[in-house]
Amino acid sequence: MKAVKNERFMKVTTYLLLIAWAVFVVFPLYWMLTTSFKSKLDVFLGPKYIPWVDFRPIVQWWIRIFTVEREEVIRPLINSIIVASISSLLAVLLGTMAAYGLTRFKFKFGFFRNHDILVWIVSQRMMPPIVIVLALFLMFKVVNLLDTRVGMILIYTAFNLPIAVWMMRNFLSQIPISIEEAAMVDGASRSQIFFRVVLPLTLPSLAATFLLCFIFAWNEFLFALILTFDKASTMPILIASQHFQRGPQWWDISVMSTVAIAPVVIIALSLQRYFVKGLIPISK
Amino acid sequence: MINIWSSFTGKKAGRAFVLPAVIILLLLTIFPFLFSLFLSFGKVSFLGGLQIHFAGLRNWLRLFNDERFYNALSNTVLIAVIAVAMEYVLGLGLVLLLNRGVKGSTFFRVLFFLPMMLTPIAVGYMWRMMFNPTRGPINHVLPLLGLPAAGWLTEPKIVLYSIILTDIWQWTPFMILILFAGLQSIPPALLEAAKVDGASGWRLFREIIFPLLIPASVAAILLRSIEVLKIVDKIYILTGGGPGIYSESMTLFGYNLGLRAFDLAYGATIAFSLFATVLVISIIFLLMTRRSQEISLE
């Protein structure tokens, strides 16, 4: 009898703790979303929690961002989409090629073997971006890449390559080589095998890797802060500058932030089944 | 073009696959890395085109006599140590709760993963609104619970903990992610056998689960520490390093002096000292945990 009671107590506690953390996770998001529907008065009069109960929701700020402020918002939004997609595509393509090379060929440059090359590539991600970004500022200035989309695409490709190589290596090492050997017997060349046999087989992994790279590029701030100032600015830069330009207009900031996180939330939800399988099998 | 393709077929095919990635990294990370190291021993001037003069140890001597450096370093390390410790404990606790066969565990898991995906700038604003002294929900609710309201982002003694809380919100999911994967890789048969032998609750955790989670824990703590030592975007939005420089992190310090004050050489010196810090902390951590990792592998 006592054991049963104890078990029920444990179960209730478990749920209460999980729900408590869920509330902690959701509340700031809820707060930002609701702020984007509040009038200035409702923001300034102190915290209002529930729409239709203690404040009347308005869509004015959402309309404004797509009309009056359209000019200001549209370019960073397009920049973010272009820079993040193209750089992620490049990172996945080059990263997959590198991962394929490292899993299918034996390398030896002096002491440097496959594993050392892999570690060298992956360890680039450890480096604090501030270390390279000041030098990049000078380099980009010399070659006229400052404040250009091309420059941002290049740097985000390099920034995402270590992750792409690491993830694709783990996926590629699970594909049995016998399939490729069969293709080779049929007279296919390496490039044909790579593009016609291996890539189609790894399509889901490629998609997952692309989306993860996309998130990193989409969210990145420091490179964009230092290497862009107007034409190539991305969404994080636009949002960050709001406060300095006009003082905290929380409603506008909330709308823009919601726009910035919406795609990431959708991607995260579509990726969730990979997370469960251990998208990043670092613990190996 | 034909030459490039034929290199995919010949004996050197392997190189053709790996080379593009290596070249990009050499150009865009290794070269700037060395250039930055060089800058830290130089002086940059833009008068009559870009010129870099050798300045010896000048920047480094300035750094070691700069109180602002020690302030930024201790802020960064304090944030890293407390945030990572809290995130690990919370992440481990949540993973164990999720593993108790609760209904809707997928729902909880997906929800719990979410914050780490979100744009840090947006997260910074979210929490700045939460911490708002007069209009934020935190200062509204605390007095109702009989607790004092506070200037979360304006009081020097509190501001770092507010930043830590924001980091915990965003990055505990990373601990959950890795520890969850670690927990999944424990063979169920092992746990069943331990239960048959009468192990349960605390003993099961301490003698079976925790030791088996050590490799995952080491990886999670190390990777998170490396990341959090770079912290800048959330601080930039939450406080801008303020009040004064009470919440300035190393990266923000490097940015402020390198680009705002436009002393690129000194900025590079600051950045390199951060790189050295990350390296030293990683090595110390790996040495400290080597013994326990060996034990868990037995």
Gross morphology of chain A is globular
The count of strands of chain B amounts to 2
Q: Which topology of the largest domain in chain B does CATH recognise?
A: MetI-like fold
What is the residue-averaged pLDDT of chain B? 88
Q: Keyphrases for this structure?
A:
heterodimer, A: 284 residues, mainly alpha, MetI-like fold, 2 domains, two-stranded antiparallel ribbon, 13 helices, 75% helix, globular, B: 298 residues, two-stranded antiparallel sheet, 2 strands, 72% helix, 3% strand, disordered N terminus
Structure notes:
- Chain A has 2 domains: 2-61; 71-277, MetI-like fold.
- Chain A has 13 helices and 2 strands, in the order ααααββααααααααα.
- Chain A has helices at 2-35, 40-44, 60-66, 70-104, 114-123, 129-142, 149-172, 177-185, 190-201, 203-219, 222-227, 235-246, 250-277; strands at residues 108-109, 112-113.
- Chain A has a two-stranded antiparallel sheet.
- Chain A is globular and about 75 Å long.
- By secondary structure, chain B is an all-alpha fold.
- Chain B has a two-stranded antiparallel sheet with strand order 1-2.
- Chain B starts with a helix and ends with a helix.
- Residues 1-6 of chain B have low confidence and may be disordered.
- At the A-B interface, α1, α4, α6, α7 and α9 of A face α2, α4, α5, α6 and α8 of B.
